[in-house]
Amino acid sequence: MNPTDRTLCPALVFTPAGRDASVALALLREARAEAIVCPDLVRFSAMLSDEISCAVVTEEALRGGDLRALAAWVAAQPAWSDFPFIVLTQRRGTPDGDGQLAELSTMLGNVTFLERPFHPTTFISVVGTALRGRFRQFEARSRIEELHEGEARLHTALTAGQLGSWELDLSTSGLITSATCKAVFGRVPYADFSYGQLVASVHPDDRDRMRNAVSESYATACDFTIECRTVWPDATLHWAELRARLVRDGSRNGMRLVGVASDVTARKTTEDSLRRVNETLETKVAERTAELERAHQVVLDEIRQRERTEELLRQGQKMEMIGQITGGVAHDFNNLLMAVMGNLELLRKQIPDDPKTGRLIDGALKGAQRGAALTQRLLAFARQQDLKIEPTHLSHLIRGITDLLERSIGSQIELKLDLPDTLPLTLVDANQIELALLNLVVNARDAMPDGGTLSISVDVANSPGRDELTAGDYLCLTVSDTGKGMDAATLAKATEPFFTTKELGKGTGLGLSMIHGLALQLNGSLRLESELGRGTRASLWLPVTSQEPIAPRLTEPKPQGNPIDSIHATILVVDDDALIATSTAYLLEDMGHEVIEADSGAKALEVLKNGQKVDLLITDYSMPKMTGVQLAIAARELRPNLPILLATGYADLPQGASLDIPRLRKPYQQHQLVAEIARALRNARSD
């Protein structure tokens, strides 16, 4: 209850005889005061409290009664309280002429005698005066409480900060200090400590500086602040920090410095130690600088090498940041393509046999597929695409696409190949290497519009480990041309995403950045060398591996009438993207399956806990609060034999995640969905 709220502070009415109580209540309401009627003196005395606004009592109700409890409460009021009593008398007169009234006046203190009969306006006026006085007391109480709280907070802050308080009267030099302040100067809490003793405890070399600071604060009213050495009674040397503000007491002569003091010995000792260390370091640096000056040429290879390393680091950090942004965009674009491709496939089945409409849908599908290829380039740049890493012989791989390369460069350009058979293997994704090589070849072709020579070679190279590559053997796939070449500024930006020198509409600017991202993902590097008019040389460095090539798997003949293909399964589809979830559900329903949709991992687990029939779980990987891998682990705990497909465009899964979960690469089409579902259900049946 807020005691300053007039509507919450009632008045007490103790008028037991006749109509006095009802009259008093009516008049109090007219004075906008709530009231509590007390039936007897005991109840009246017990109801008195700091939260009552005033009391209205008749003279006869108090005469002859035991007033000790009432007198004790009045005497025990806090300093801010002077409780107002309004006593209704029966006769004319004043307390001076009536002994009993005089006793009541003395006992009650703040009392107003109102002789009956009285005019209502007089009563309301008396009550209003009493209420206003009481509410001013409440306000005083609030100010006192705020002051006490402020003092308590100040004391807590000073204690927490190990600060001592002090106050110096500048006219009398009288000093008041707290126990903590005395401790700053090595004094015990209850010892006398005058201003003269304080000055005497300051180190002789610092006393004038302290006196001058006090004088300046007095003369200019600026804040007083100083750090000085102090000598304690035990002759030990310490440091003190004093801060204060000038406070005026209404006249020039009545001025005080009020502030805090703290022991800063530990800080000053640390600063001195650091200063000595710095001085020592500066001496050593000077000596080392002299040595470096004597070996200037040698140090200048080191500086250049360091600058090159720093530049590589900055470039790597920039590319990493751009890669993260690009990967997020590509992931979202993958989701959009999923919805587009799925809906187009279903639309093609729904429309009538109209060749023109079919061609339009096919064109839209091809456009979406080209968009999917573009997202793979983006994910390659961001090092987030799903790679199928296998030991590969680069010379054999390149020979396998020679026809494609020749068709890509045209008849005006001569193709030279240097592809030795006796080369070690490297761990790569064959499809991505083919795509990277095709990009390099197309770039070289575009740099030779009037014809020229394009050379492709593979050789073994070694890195000493002084640059971005770790030490070891590498296969170096090199594509060089005799084209226009690039100047230094263009070469520096060549691997940045979306940077291109081609005409508008003839290049995305993602080719080299994709190859750069792919090389980093394979623990390799892409190096470019070029000069204007002297062609370009692009080298893709890939680590050598000792792993043996994986023998090709023989495709088992598909059993005729395999019952798996005709099963109508119940499939739980989990995706936080409504477009993806709806598109996937339509594709599955078109295949004859029953679909249960969930837009989060938590809702999917509810379905599994409720015991609903679920033959297969298809879940997106990237979802808020619970990823697809986390959902798969939780689902396996509920249903250990439940087949699960993880739909994702990302390659990297968190450490410790189970890698035996089949993954469905986004964006997928219906025939891929059919194949993966059949495989998952077949594997579940065989288990």
From TrEMBL:
It comes from the Bacteria. Residues 328-546 form the Histidine kinase domain. Residues 570-681 form the Response regulatory domain. Residues 224-276 form the PAC domain. Signal peptide: none annotated. It holds the Pfam family HisKA. The modification 4-aspartylphosphate is found at D620. SMART domains: HATPase_c, HisKA, REC. One of its GO terms (molecular function) is phosphorelay sensor kinase activity. Its EC number is 2.7.13.3. It is an enzyme of class 2 (transferase). Keywords: Kinase, Phosphoprotein, Transferase. InterPro entries: CheY-like_superfamily, HATPase_C_sf, HATPase_dom, His_kinase_dom, HisK_dim/P_dom, HisK_dim/P_sf, PAS, PAS-assoc_C. It catalyses: ATP + protein L-histidine = ADP + protein N-phospho-L-histidine. This is histidine kinase.
